Amino acid sequence: MKITFVLRNKKNQLKVSTKTVERFIERIKTDTKEAAVAHRRRLLHRAGYIESYDSQFPSHMVYPCAQFEKDANDNLRMKSFNGMVALVVDNLEHPSDVEAVKQAAQILHYTLAAFVGPSEREVIILVRIATPEGSPATEEEADSYCMAGYKLAAALYQAVLPKPVSWGTSSVRTNFHMPLDARPYLNLRAIALPVSEKPMQVVEQQSQIPVIVPTSKEVEEKVSGISQETRRLMDYLNSHYQFRYNTTMGYTEYKDNVYKYMVWTPVDDRVLKGLTMKVRLAGIEANDNDVRRYVQSDMIRPYNPVSDYLWEQYGKWDGTDHIRRLARTVPTNNPHWENWFYTWFLGMVRQWQVANFAKYGNQAVPLLISAQGWNKTTFCEQLLPPELSWGYTGNLQMNDKRQVLQQMAQMLLINLDEFNQISPQIQQGFLKNIITLSSVKIKRPYGRHVEDFPRRASFIATTNQPDVLADPSGSRRFLGVELTGPIDMSTPPNHEQLYAQAMQALHRHELYYFDAEATRQIMESNRRFSVKTPVEEFFFDYFEPAADENEGQWMSATAILHFLKDEIGISLLRPVSVIKFGRLLSGIPNLQKRLTRANSEYLVKHKSTTHHTSTTTLKSL
């Protein structure tokens, strides 16, 4: 697959060269030595001047859809079809709009590349398409595939892009001036979009059977009547109401044009019946299915409330660290809290952006620990802006797995309120699993099949008890922080700046997950919030992690457990298995571990006998 570069110089000589997609993407990251692309961009706003400039200083034209060569008469001739089409989203007035389109194009896995176009006010999206019968042999066949793929891709991408696709025609000779983009997007593993429509053929070449075109007056009147009645229905609905399809919630919403202060409302069955009655009262013959067919069709403009809100904030950050300022309203002695909250907040926003293709979900969960009445729940509720407040819930029933998975797909932030009421079994099993999910498999209401939905929700948790973490190996996912006083709620969060800062940070590729060092800090800090089992308490009565072999010795989990049973008594440690005890030891910070041929060993140091008073007394009882 090679992209063709065509240049007609001042002498009208045709120069043709090709580059692979990878080399093309590398090429457009930097301008020419003469800064030709940047100079041409500055001249584009001068009406009537750019044509004379292009004729005086001709630049390369890029042909992405096919590889071309020169024939003997110095004409372009298609050599091979590349199996891609180019979509253009133009009239983008602000850099934030350009970046929003580039980011949105990455959501669909048919995107081979997305980059800023030659004028700096458009984004070009290269979409891979699959031809059902292999590569077309002629340019005419390739043009047919191009047009079919273009129509399909444009309709598909319009559902996810924040700005409209510039509709037009497409062929293998679709071309554009040399672009310039320092950060283009490239996905060499892009999937080819299946194009089922066959190339248009001349009828006489396919069959000698004549094509009969209906010319009956009755048929024409019937078709015209249906079209006119349908058009009347659509005109009435569009003149009296506004419709949009909420891609996050998966339903159409509407507003009445008469009631200006009406909020967007889902079009449910009751609303559909009301719309039908109003249509009929207007003298239009229509039933519920007619109205439903239109308002639930892809003719309704798509709307993503989450991405729309985020991209509205892009480029608005004032440079102040609003995220850590918000973290400081939570009084705590934990020195890492501000940075932990900052990383988690970026992870939450990132989860909303690329939920479709993330390998892992936002695995971190801030855990606010304090007495009642210290504004923990209020703090959690105010993390979302009013425009997205519908995406918050604190009413999650962990025993209803279907509800949990459904809310993970539809909500944006889930508060695990009263975290201490979640049993150790659920913490170590179901909860540990869902926190890492990037997508959830559920069945729609009244649906017949289980479907894969992107996970959108991140988690936060609150509790009144400090000893709540029952899974030592899973404690790294919780950012435990004990409050020293009530959270300051005197000043509402500046949501615009919070999310503008997050968008800017993600654009700069800041970390939205925790590295190994931060994870170690989290696990060490969380030890104080762990549920202490008797065997763990007994272990620390007799042992502690050793710094090196000079002060300690390597012992297996079996040997340590046998020692404790001899010292304490078998009856007190009978429910504990060696496997569970080994997992407990693996979760202890600073406890060194090594693998041998037989088992795992831990570097431990025996404590002095003065520490054994309580357990000795317990054994004697």
Structure, briefly:
This protein has 621 residues and is an alpha+beta fold. It contains 22 helices and 26 strands.
What does this structure look like?
By secondary structure, the protein is an alpha+beta fold. The longest helix has 24 residues, at 217-240. The chain is globular.
Observed structural traits:
621 residues; alpha+beta; five-stranded mixed beta sheet; five-stranded parallel beta sheet; 22 helices; 26 strands; disordered C terminus
| Biggest pleated-sheet summary | 5 strands, mixed
Structural class: alpha+beta
Number of helices: 22
Low-confidence stretches: 197-226, 613-621
Hey, roughly how much beta strand do the residues contain?
15-25%
For the termini, the CA-CA separation is 81 Å
Overall mean pLDDT: 81
What radius of gyration results from the CA coordinates? 32 Å
Q: In which range does the helix fraction lie?
A: 25-40%
Number of E strands = 26
C-alpha geometry? globular
Write the layout of secondary structure elements.
Elements: E1 2-8, E2 14-20, H1 21-27, H2 36-43, H3 50-56, E3 61-63, E4 66-70, E5 76-81, E6 84-89, H4 95-105, E7 111-116, E8 123-130, H5 139-158, E9 176-177, E10 185-186, E11 193-194, H6 203-206, H7 217-240, E12 241-246, E13 251-256, E14 265-266, H8 269-281, H9 288-295, E15 302-303, H10 305-313, H11 322-327, H12 337-353, E16 365-369, H13 376-381, E17 392-393, H14 401-410, E18 413-416, H15 424-435, E19 439-443, E20 450-454, E21 458-463, E22 478-482, H16 495-507, H17 516-526, H18 534-542, E23 543-545, E24 553-556, H19 557-568, H20 570-573, H21 578-586, E25 593-595, E26 600-606, H22 613-620
Parallel strand pairs: 8-11, 12-15, 16-21, 16-22, 17-18, 18-21
Antiparallel strand pairs: 1-2, 1-3, 3-9, 4-5, 6-8, 7-8, 7-10, 12-13, 13-14, 19-20, 23-26, 24-26, 25-26
Helix pairs in contact: 8-9, 10-16, 12-16
